[in-house]
Each structure stands twice: as C-alpha cells, then as structure tokens.
Design goal:
Layout: H1 19-28, H2 33-40, H3 45-72, H4 84-94, H5 97-100, H6 109-113, E1 134-135, H7 168-176, E2 177-178, E3 185-190, H8 192-204, E4 235-236, E5 249-250, E6 262-268, E7 271-275, E8 280-281, H9 290-293, H10 297-303, H11 363-386, H12 392-428, H13 445-449, E9 462-463, E10 479-480, H14 488-493, H15 497-506, E11 508-510, E12 518-519, H16 520-523, H17 537-547, H18 553-559, H19 568-574, H20 578-588, H21 596-602, H22 613-628, H23 642-649, H24 653-660, E13 665-666, E14 681-682, E15 713-720, E16 723-730, E17 734-737, E18 741-745, E19 748-749, E20 755-758, E21 775-779, E22 782-786, E23 791-793, E24 800-802, H25 808-839, E25 847-848, E26 854-855, H26 857-860, H27 883-891, H28 913-921
Parallel strand pairs: 2-12
Antiparallel strand pairs: 1-8, 3-11, 4-5, 6-7, 9-10, 13-14, 15-16, 16-18, 17-20, 18-19, 21-22, 23-24, 25-26
Helix pairs in contact: 3-4, 3-27, 7-17, 7-20, 8-11, 11-12, 11-24, 12-22
Length: 931
C-alpha cells in the first residue's frame, strides 16, 4: 500500500470534563499541581460510577459496623462480618451490584470476529478476565496494616520487621533524587524507548484515584489535611525538606477500591467473607490499543466519527499539522491544560481527547496518540478502497483489529526484549504456542504499581526538537521537562509532531543508574503549572505501592524463585553500588521492608537489559499472560490469515512514523540510537503493510445482496460454514429491536432487518443514570442530568451540589426585601425623630399645622407608644441526631428490621440541617425527600 498522508474528514469534538475544573480555573487562573494530578487521574464517567459505588459501599459498611459494635459490644456480631442479607442490601443500594454480576456474552459472528471494547467475554468461561473496570489481579496477597485496607505506613509507630517504615520523602531525598545535570546517557537506545514505555503502560492499566470529595461527615479534604483520613494518605514533608509546599505534606488521594473489597467483604452463598481491599483497572488489560479507542462503549462512541462511511475516528476541527490531523479537543471548556502565555485569552488550546485521559501529560505522549489516530484513519480509508462493499462498522472494526495487532507486535517483538533482556525473555515468555483459555490475562497490581514504573528512572530532564537535518532548531529551543507538562499548545503552535519526533529519535535515553535515578524535574517540579506548587513523582510511586499494600522486596524475590536477601552483604549481590546499599539499610534496616518499586529500580541490570532480575521476572510473566490469555492475539490462527500475518510482520514503529508524518529519514529500529545521516534510512526503504491481503471477493448476484442499513446502527458480515451471516449492532444509547443476526439462505435473507430504538435511560429505576438530587431528561441517544438554580452538576455529571451563588428567585426576593426594609427604615426613622422631639420637655413650645393653628406638645404628640409583637410558634418538632446515627439514617433508611439495634440519641445541639443535606448528597440513589 502506498504511504498516505491524506487529510481526514473533520468530525465533531466531544469529551467530558468536570465542572470543578471550570470553577478552579475561574478562581485561580490555573490549578495547583496536586489538583492537576487529581484531575489527570480522574476517570471517565463509567469508571466514576463504579468508583463512587465502591466508596459508598465501603463507607456505609464501616459506619454501620462501628455503630452496631458500639451499641451491642459485638454481642450480635461475633466477627467483623455483617449478616449476608444486610451486606446484599448495601451492595444493591450503593450501586455496586451491577458491576459484580458476570456480563452477558452473546455468541455470534461479531463477538467471534472482533473483541468487545470493554474486553469482556474474550474468555467464555471467565468473562470478566481482562475486562475494563474490574479489580487488578493479585499474584501475592496484599499486606495491609489492619489486614484489610489500611496502607503500609498508615498508623504512626506501626512496626514492620521491628522498625517503622521511613517516610517516602526521606527515601526520595536520600536515595532517589539527583540534579538535572546528573544524567548518564544510554549509548544504545533512543529516547523513543522511554516514550513507548509510557504510552504502552497507558494501554494496559489506569487505576483511578478516589472520586469522593469532602461532602459527608466522615470525609476529609485531601487538599487541606495532613492526617491519614480516608480517602487521604498525605506524603509528609519535614521542616528541613527543600520541597516547597504550603502544608507540611503533599496531598495524596488513595486509589479507589473495587466493589466488595476492603472493609466490605464479598458473598459466597449465604456467607459474607472478608476480602482485602483491591484496586480497579479502568482499562482493558489487553494490548488492544485502548489508548486509541477507549475501554468502554461510551468513550468509544465519543471518539468515532459515526457519520463517516469509512469508519473513521474524529479529528481536530481547528488545527492541522501541515495538512495532517491532530487529536480532537475535549468538548467541555475550559479544560485544565496550560495555555500559551503569549496568546490572547480568547485563544485557548484545550486538552486533547483520546482513548486514555492522560494523553496530554507531555508532548511526546500526545504525539504518539496522534500518530495512532492518523494510522487508524489511513488504514480505514485504504481498506474502504480495497473493499468498497464493506459497511462503516466493518471498516472501523478491521482497522481497529490491525492497529491492535501492531501494538502487540511492536511491544512484544521490538520493545520488551530490550527491557528485560533476551535471556529473561526466553525464560519467562518464550515462543508463542497458541491461546491458553486457563491463563488469566488481567494486569496484576504489582506490574502496574511497581514493575512497569521502572521507566520513571529513565526519563530525560530535557526535551529536544530538531530540524530536518536532525540539528538543533534555533526557533525551537530545548525545553526543561517541567515546561512541557500538559501543554498541548506547544505541539500545535511550535512546529507540530515532526521536530519533536526527530528529537526523540536522535536523543539518547537516560540510563537508569543506581545513584542517578529520578532528576529534579520529576522530584521537585512535577506538574509545575503556576505558583501553586509541584509534586514529587518518586514519592508518589512509593506511596502508591504502600496504598495498594504491595508485599516487600523479599516476598517478590521468592515469588520469582530468586534467593531472599537478609543482610547488607546479601544486598550487595543484587545492588552493586555499595553506597546505595548503605543508604537503603540506613533507612529501612532490613531488606524485607524495602518498597518494591525502589528495590526494583536499584537492582543491577541484566545483560542487554534495562531492568534487574526481579522486574524482568514480573514484566516477563505479565507479558506472557497478556499474550497467551488473549483469544484475539494477532498470532492466533483464528484472528488473521497467514497472508495477513505476513504483512503485519513487516510493520514497525519506524513504519508508523514514515506513514503519518513529514519525516523522510528514520532509523530502521526507532528504539536504537543512531547518528544522522549514516544510521538513518529513507522512508522508501522502510517496509509497510500491503492491504491486498485484506481484499474480499464479494458477488452480490450470487448471494442475498447488500443487507439493509439501519439508522443509528450498523452491521458486519462474515462467512461461517459456507453461509453468509450479518450481525447488526446499535450505537451507544440505542437498543436493538428484532433479530441481531441474519443468514443468507437460498438467495434471501431469512429475517427482516432490525431497528435501533432510542433508550430512555431515565426509566432505569434499578441503576438510575442521575442522582436523585438531579432531574433526568432523555435525549436522542443519551440523557442529561439537570439541576435547579442555584444548584449545579458535580464533576460526576450526575449529582447536584450547591454552586455557592444565589438563585434568581432569591435575588429578586432580596432586592424586594431591601426595598421594603428601606421604606420601613425611613418610616421608622421619621417616627423615632418625632417621638424624640416630642419627648424633649420645653424644647418644643408649639407646632404649626397646615391651618396655622398652634398646639401644645401634648396635643401634637401622643403620651405613649405601645408595640405589640406577636411571635409565630412553629408546630414542627425537630429531633436532632448525633453525627454517626445521622450517617446511618441517611445511608440505611431501608433497614427497618434492624431499627431495634440502631442507636438514635436525641440530643446533639451542634448538628445543623446543612450537615444533613451535605451528607445526603453523597448517598447513591437516595435523597432527603425520599427519606
């Protein structure tokens, strides 16, 4: 196929951003770094709902257990487990139940040919394996300080192996942090190896942070507190620390729990069993290009150009890169991304919208997302030309399948062997032998929270942009990393993708050296966007591992059949830098206590690798699970034909760059560092895919002809057992009415084509789309949650909250009230003045009335004034509750059969009605009026 650089049809932009962003930007101009991190880690709407349900369930369970235990001294509850029927009620009311049930797995032509966007049902026996919005896999049981949920380091003075854990900031300052100048360059690999590592990690996992905000009685504001109070686990900063912060800590939100874990437990039959806290992976676990297409139907729907006959993805409507496409902007503005300080305030460049919400973090990551957007549309257009009879849905799905396969090939063939080394690759991964249905492909907690974060120690502090001769461009000077965080405007206004990609290909990666780990750009200036402070990536990584309860270093070495290390002498066998070992032992006292992420990045590297033996083991085992447990892996015989696999093998990251940019010369292997021009090849010599292998022979006169098209839906067709089969599907927000699958029998379709009918989401009473505080309004293909003035939608898009402003009706009432009061005040002042003047004996001898008659003071002024004030009496009797009982009443109005064991004291003078209203807003599907 010819290398294409065609323009794409412009599609509409759409995305979701919480209204909280707009309020913060209006108030401060830009957000603090900690707030920015929270929003960059804020999940899409589907994941928000799951996170909120899980957090509501966890908080409700804790509250109820605490009250019952205090009331009955544990006499009714012999263990920490609630009765199964109570737990089931909480599970249902919190909204967790729908996400705990196994998904339905239709068996038709569509599901056999293409993977579902959520990853569900790729394993028929275990349909939730690898699916989005499910718990991360655990390869070893978590280690929590209370055995269930509390992170390591949560309780002051808690001992691990006889010693308390050191502060993560102390670890960062003493072992990890180095200056920006302390960089040893990788002589073999280009900076592209770090860029691809970050990009592909975003294809595999995204663990959302807590979505709770301080609205209920028991919650803390993580931006304002330095206490360990759910959902906050702040990073302590001490007096002698060089880190600049307004508090004595850096804000840190815990990762959201998965439903029915932690303090909640889960159900087995009629029993409720304790289950330690697990964390959510909001993405599919598979190498399936979810960075391009999303991991839920709603996200996919936003990214697609559903009006295109070529199955295209949406593109930017305002800007082009020398005729080539950019990612679309998020729809709701203003978005939180930084702006060009030289631009007019009206000229905003918003955050990019992609399959993953972190696409705008740094320009190189945004560039990689953009390349794959262009590649999908390039392939889709070419496939449509090769197969004009294909429906838009078929073109889209086939292009998506190819793009997913290319992600798998580049990662497993070109990238992973360079990271773990050829020896570890053969040991842990080996040759492909086919799909293994018993292999769980779910991303493990240890992989995403520790092992695959090894690349943070290989991030270069400088971003280079080069000209066509791969030389420094005077118009595009080098950038310090902190100057590029969340700055999509730099990509659009400063040369586009080409200079940035040249710099990535021709710049050496930073080598991961034991005494040169993370530079100050990451430990002191992470997400520096204003005077509002910054963050520390190393401390965040360490704290996240503790938050997730990852076992210690030696437990994982034992898991990988590596010897346990017990002494400083033992440790020097794994970490050759003796000074680093001494610092570690000085802080941790024993190797068992070492935080896994730190231990992994300081281990001595394996030959021809960029990790030590422990991380090579964990990464290798995870990659084997992702490959062998994936029914749609590109090498599986049922996914592509042999001719198609032959074409796919030709492709590389260099092919992607040549086909979708203005670069004309690139290295054969984009991960290998070379000198220009001797180590670079013209793009004409870089192999690409010939799509003739995807051409289908279609003879309408020999079968039933083209199937009928349906509005708001589409179809795919396939041949099975000599029969032509068509499977229909509807767009997000529509339901299929009729048979989804039609067969061609004796020249006729056996059934009438179905129709796609708009779903009225507002009629869903089991799992309402809007919180009861909002009004649900159905729209074509979707719905809206509306609030009455002066309330506004919260960032979840479902709940109403006080906007802090007065309603229009209140303003009118206030104005009228001011006028009335003003009139009363003037009248009162006149009466008071008359009374005062009349009461002064002898000061007034006479008053002249209109007829000129003189009167005495007694005749002109009354002798006395009486005011009879009648005070209205309220017939409403308010029965105040204590705080904890209020939480129970709000969260469990349905537990009438347990009223005899619920304590409801009748006196708490400090409790305000507003507290009640705030708490009720945090309860899923219940409102004050329903109570």
């Amino acid at each position: 196929m010819e290398k294409g650089r065609d323009k794409l049809a412009i599609g509409p932009q759409i995305s979701e951003m919480g209204t909280e962003i707009e309020r913060l930007l209006e108030r401060h101009g830009t957000m603090a770094s900690s707030q920015f991190l929270a929003f960059s880690k804020y999940p899409y709407q589907e994941t928000q709902a799951i996170s909120q349900a899980a957090e509501s369930m966890e908080a409700s369970k804790q509250d109820l257990k605490r009250e019952l235990h205090q009331k009955h001294k544990r006499s009714l509850l012999p263990s920490d487990v609630l009765p199964a029927d109570v737990l089931m009620m909480i599970t249902n009311v919190s909204g967790c139940l729908p996400y705990m049930l196994p998904p339905k797995c239709p068996d038709n032509c569509m599901t056999r040919k293409y993977r579902h966007i959520t990853g569900a049902c790729q394993n028929r026996a275990h349909p939730r394996w690898g699916a989005s919005n499910t718990a991360l896999a655990r390869w070893l049981p978590p280690v929590y300080e209370d055995g269930l949920s509390q992170p390591k380091g949560w309780n002051y003075g808690f001992l691990h192996n006889g010693f308390p854990l050191p502060s993560v900031r102390e670890v960062t300052r003493n072992i990890i942090e180095v200056s920006n100048e302390a960089v040893t360059e990788d002589e073999r690999h280009s900076d592209m190896i770090t860029v691809w590592g970050q990009y592909i990690s975003h294809d595999l996992a995204f663990t959302p942070q807590s979505v709770n905000r301080p609205s209920s009685l028991e919650e803390a504001d993580c931006q304002l507190t330095c206490e360990n109070r759910s959902p906050c686990f702040p990073i302590q900063v001490f007096a002698n620390d060089t880190f600049s912060t307004s508090l004595n800590c850096l804000p840190f939100y815990r990762s959201s729990p998965a439903c029915a874990t932690g303090h909640q437990g889960f159900l087995i039959g009629n029993l409720s069993v304790l289950n330690p806290r697990q964390q959510i992976n909001s993405l599919t676990s598979f190498l399936d290009a979810s960075t391009v297409y999303g991991s839920t139907p709603a996200t996919e729907n936003k990214l697609r150009n559903l009006t295109s006959e070529e199955g295209l993805l949406r593109i930017n409507m305002r800007y082009f890169d020398n005729g080539r496409e950019y990612l679309p902007f998020v729809a709701q503005v203003p978005s939180p991304c930084a702006q060009d300080p030289k631009a007019d305030k009206e000229e905003r460049v918003e955050c990019f919208m992609a399959g993953d919400s972190r696409a705008s973090e740094v320009p190189s990551l945004a560039a990689m997302h953009t390349l794959w957007l262009r590649e999908h549309n390039r392939l889709a257009k070419a496939l449509k030309k090769v197969n004009p009879h294909w429906s838009p849905e078929t073109v889209y799905q086939e292009a998506r399948k190819i793009v997913g396969a290319l992600h798998q090939i580049i990662t497993l063939r070109d990238y992973i062997p360079k990271i773990i080394g050829p020896g570890a690759f053969n040991q842990y991964i080996g040759a492909y032998k086919g799909y293994v249905p018993t292999m769980n492909p779910s991303v493990s907690n240890v992989f995403t929270t520790a092992a695959f974060r090894f690349g943070h120690a290989a991030i270069h502090p400088v971003i280079k942009r080069l000209d066509v001769q791969y030389q420094n461009d005077p118009n595009l000077p080098n950038l310090q990393l902190h100057e590029a965080f969340f700055t999509p405007w730099r990509l659009i206004k400063e040369g586009g993708l080409d200079p940035l990609l040249r710099g990535t290909l021709a710049t050496a990666a930073k080598l991961q050296v034991q005494d040169q780990l993370l530079n100050e750009e990451l430990t002191k200036k992470l997400f520096v966007l204003s005077h509002n402070g910054s963050l520390d990536l190393a401390s965040l990584d360490l704290q996240r591992g503790r938050d997730h309860g990852l076992p210690g270093y030696n437990d994982w070495r034992e898991f990988c059949d590596l010897p346990r290390l017990r002494t400083e002498s033992d440790l020097t066998k794994a970490i050759q830098n003796r000074t680093t070992v001494q610092k570690i032992m000085g802080l941790y006292k024993h190797p068992d206590k070492m935080d896994l992420w730190l231990a992994g990045i300081v281990e001595s590297m394996l030959p021809d690798a960029r990790t030590g033996p422990l991380f090579a083991c964990i990464i290798g085992k995870q990659m084997k699970a992702l490959r062998d447990g994936d029914r749609f892996w590109w090498e599986n015989d049922n996914v592509f034909t042999e001719d198609q696999r032959r074409e796919l093998r030709k492709y590389s990251l260099s092919s992607l760059i040549c086909d979708n940019t203005g670069l004309t010369e690139v290295p054969l292997d984009a991960f290998i560092l070379g000198k220009f021009p001797k180590d670079f090849e013209p793009c004409e010599n870089i192999p690409s895919i010939h799509l003739g292998a995807w051409q289908e022979t279609f003879h309408p006169e020999l079968n039933c002809g083209f199937p009928a098209r349906v509005e708001h839906g589409d179809f795919v067709h396939c041949s099975e057992a000599g029969k032509l089969i068509v499977t229909y599907s509807c767009h997000q927000g529509y339901a299929l009415l009729g048979e989804e699958q039609l067969c061609c029998i004796q020249g006729k379709w056996n059934l009438k084509a179905p129709v796609c009918q708009d779903i009225n989401e507002c009629e869903n009473k089991t799992n309402p789309p809007c919180h009861s505080s909002a009004q649900c309004v159905n729209t074509q293909g979707s719905f809206q949650c509306l609030c009455t003035d002066p309330y506004e939608l919260a960032e979840d898009g479902k709940t109403c909250r006080d906007s802090g402003r007065l309603s229009k009706g209140s303003l009118v009432s206030i104005i009228l009230g001011v006028i009335v009061l003003s009139c009363l005040a003037v009248s009162s002042w006149f009466v008071v003045c008359r009374w005062w003047s009349c009461s002064a004996k002898g000061s007034v001898n006479s008053q002249v009335l209109n007829d000129g008659k003189n009167l005495s003071p007694e005749e002109n002024c009354p002798n006395s004034y009486e005011m009879n004030i009648s005070q209205s009496q309220s017939n409403i009797l308010v029965k105040p509750l204590d705080k904890k009982s209020l939480v129970l009443l709000v969260r469990f109005p349905f537990l009438t059969e347990y009223q005899d064991i619920l304590p409801f004291p009748t006196h708490d003078d400090g409790l305000l009605a507003k507290t009640f209203e705030h708490n009720i807003q945090d309860v899923a599907h219940f409102s004050l009026w329903q109570l």
